[in-house]
Design brief:
alpha+beta; globular; 6-stranded antiparallel sheet; 20 helices
């Protein structure tokens, strides 16, 4: 650990930064962000004395104390030719390797029989099935469209986008369709026994039945049960109509069926055939104006380097096939083109392109003339993008997993396994993320009038819990109704124990407001209807938070002997929660374990740091840099993997942009006995005003069995202002 004092010059200003080198470069970037408002991901920091770039590999203890900050935007104008292109030596090596590969390709291709086009043609017939209205309708009927629409809108709202464009909504829905398909479809290693459900063993291939051939199953695998004499058939169906029904298969069936689903909802889609034995989907995003990689088997999107970098695949040909033509997209999926080129020996590059153009012309020959210019423009755009991608640097901060689908031994045999720990996409360089959680603050505060009414009426604990259960049930009813027209009824009766006490209705006002709901008296005056009072998305994002909070409140209240004024305090009441700040973390899992998940008020979500077991951090910056006196905080364990729970940590605050830190609390040997367990901590020496709060997690429950840290939630509580 070395304490340094830097002077950072930016534009016409200079800033003093006190810094501890143990914290790493990301913390220094966040401190500079607090002072200059240049986001960490857009910062370029150079030492003024020798113009040396400050990077993750720099020795922060020995670099010059005078630094200069250049934003990436400014730097793009100032970059020298040396920074714009690769070195002459490296470029020469690559060109020579490509030339050698092309010569080898010419030699081998001359000795290999043709037929590349004929290998592609069956897949053209395959993708044309996706245009069949009957198949499309069959697929749409199986999709919970309203549920996925709601999830798509909530995902956008969590990023602060409550008014998305149609293009943004469409893209968000596509991702939810991918996640739903991943949950719904079943991977088959060996099918279970048709008779008793036990494990089976392969018995080779069988002859297809007429009923199987009707859906394109020209190959049928046979499996013998290990517990009974039954032989189970596994037809490899090619017709996506049958796959919509069976919902099972391997990568071919997964990609085949998922591409049908994408076309069924109007997405420009294509089947991607990897000649090294994998299949996936691409869809065109009008929001991003490019083709998006979607792998339904893995549930991964827009990560084209997954195969070469994560699975360690040695790619050769990756061909996109759609109703509008055929395209070679190999360059999207590699950063090692000269190596890939040496493996492309089935035909010459010129013959390949000629063949693909022929197939594309055939497909477009029947199209209306007006639609051709748009397709050709998109083709040109894509070719330019593929060339840019080939020479753009790889994002070293993103870690891609080995293959997750399929039997472990099968994946190891194919050398696609990766590691046990690295099972998801993760990033060690996180952007500053905005917390969209003011509704969590409002929901937590809304329980005060309800509990106050309990105290004033002298309700026994059992009756108070019963009333809360009624509130919870009506919210469950609301959640189970279509999100655009949510409505549920609450029966009123002051005397009946099975109905909601009418005198408590006014106390519900704040909770309904926090949920963007309103109550309307029914004509019989014996019930009220709760319905939307604002944008459906605001209710959709808030309902899960309210339900989780009610479950916890009921559990906490059940441990009380009575409800009195002393009960109206922390931790039963969670008032003055800090919200709407921004977060930066040392690492995160993508897309479901990002840093803001720790502050969204939802139990099922979590922040996951893939390399955090032996130390990591998360920094919270308050809205508008408001100073707060922290008086308490809570941490909740996540849904699984107790070995990843935080065990030792330090909580610090800063009021000078992160130049110096004051220790607010320190905990050691903490154990979360249950999943979703919330632990509350009071700041024993309050009084320090801060606008930056940092958790330094020092270790997890079992560092020997995991490299990861995860937690369900963090809640910070300030003093009353």
């Amino acid at each position: 650990m070395v304490a340094r004092k830097f002077v950072v010059r930016h534009e016409d200003s200079s800033f003093d930064v006190d810094y501890d080198t143990e914290d790493g470069l990301e913390v220094l970037r966040f401190q500079i962000f607090s002072l200059t408002l240049v986001p960490p991901e857009e910062q370029k920091i150079v030492a003024e004395d020798d113009n040396r770039l400050v990077s993750d590999e720099s020795d922060l203890a020995s670099i010059s104390e005078r630094l200069r900050l250049v934003s990436i935007e400014e730097d793009s104008v100032e970059n020298s030719d040396a920074e714009m292109v690769k070195s002459d030596e490296e470029l020469a090596r690559m060109l020579q390797a490509e030339e050698d590969a092309m010569m080898f390709q010419q030699f081998v291709a001359a000795r290999v029989s043709g037929g590349f086009e004929e290998r592609i043609r069956p897949y053209i017939s395959q993708v044309l099935m996706y245009e069949d209205p009957v198949r499309q309708e069959a697929a749409r009927k199986t999709v919970p469209k309203d549920e996925l629409e709601e999830k798509a809108l909530v995902s956008l709202a969590k990023e602060g986008n409550f008014e998305p464009s149609k293009k943004e909504r469409d893209y968000a829905f596509l991702l939810q369709l991918l996640f739903w398909f991943k949950r719904s479809f079943r991977w088959v290693n060996e099918p279970p026994c048709d008779f008793c459900g036990n494990k089976t063993i392969s018995q080779g291939m069988g002859n297809p039945l007429t009923s199987e051939l009707a859906y394109g199953a020209h190959r049928v695998e046979l499996y013998r049960c290990t517990m009974c004499p039954t032989i189970t058939r596994f037809p490899r169906y090619n017709d996506p109509l049958k796959l919509v029904e069976t919902k099972k298969g391997r990568c071919g069936e997964w990609a085949n069926c998922f591409t049908l689903y994408c076309r069924s909802f109007g997405y420009d889609s294509r089947l991607i055939m990897d000649f090294t034995d994998h299949v996936w989907t691409e869809c065109y995003s009008h929001s991003l104006k490019r083709w998006i990689h979607l792998d339904p088997c893995e549930g991964v999107y827009d990560k084209p380097m997954l195969y070469e970098k994560g699975w360690n695949k040695k790619l050769n040909y990756v061909i996109a096939i759609s109703k509008d033509g055929v395209c070679d997209v190999t360059k999207r999926y590699t950063k090692k083109w000269h190596e890939v080129l040496s493996r492309r020996t089935l035909t010459t590059e010129s013959s390949l392109q000629d063949g693909l153009r022929t197939l594309t012309r055939e497909r477009r020959s029947s199209l209306m003339y007006e639609s051709l210019p748009e397709l050709e423009f998109r083709d040109r755009q894509e070719q330019e993008e593929l060339e840019r991608n080939l020479h753009s640097p790889d994002d070293a901060s993103v870690s891609l997993p080995g293959r997750q689908s399929g039997d472990r031994e099968w994946r190891i045999m194919r050398s696609e396994f990766g590691s046990d720990e690295n099972s998801s996409v993760s990033s060690s360089s996180c952007p500053v993320r905005k917390c969209v959680d003011d509704h969590v603050f409002n929901i937590y505060d809304s329980f005060l009038p309800i509990l106050t009414q309990f105290v004033e009426d002298g309700l026994p604990v059992a009756r108070a819990i019963q009333v809360l259960q009624m509130i919870k049930q009506v919210l469950v009813d609301l959640k189970n109704t279509p999100y655009k027209t949510r409505k549920a009824r609450l029966t009123l009766d002051s005397d009946s124990s099975s109905s909601f006490p009418e005198q408590f209705l006014p106390a519900l006002g704040d909770l309904l407001l926090a949920l963007s709901l309103k109550s309307e008296r029914d004509t019989n005056d014996k019930s009220v209807t709760l319905c939307l009072d604002g944008k459906p998305t605001k209710t959709a994002i808030a309902l899960p938070v309210a339900l989780d909070a009610l479950r916890e409140l009921i559990a906490d209240l059940s441990k009380c002997q009575n409800v009195n004024k002393d009960s109206l305090s922390f931790p039963l009441l969670k008032q003055n929660r800090i919200c709407s700040g921004s977060v930066l973390a040392s690492g995160e899992e993508l897309p479901s374990g990002i840093a803001t998940a720790a502050f969204d008020g939802i139990q099922e979500s979590k922040w996951e740091e893939p390399n955090g077991a032996k130390g990591c951090w998360i920094v919270y910056k308050t809205l508008y840099n408001q100073m707060h006196q922290l008086i308490a905080y809570e941490i909740m364990s996540a849904n699984d993997a107790p070995e990843r729970d935080p065990k030792d940590w330090v909580l610090e605050g800063s009021n000078d942009g992160g130049s110096s830190w004051c220790v607010l609390d320190k905990q050691t040997s903490q154990v979360f006995e249950e999943r979703f367990q919330r632990k509350s901590y009071k700041i024993t020496t309050p009084g320090f005003q801060a606008n930056l709060f940092r958790f330094r997690f020092l270790s997890v429950r079992d560092m020997n069995s995991t490299s990861r840290l995860q937690l369900g939630s963090i809640d910070l509580y300030r003093s009353h202002q």
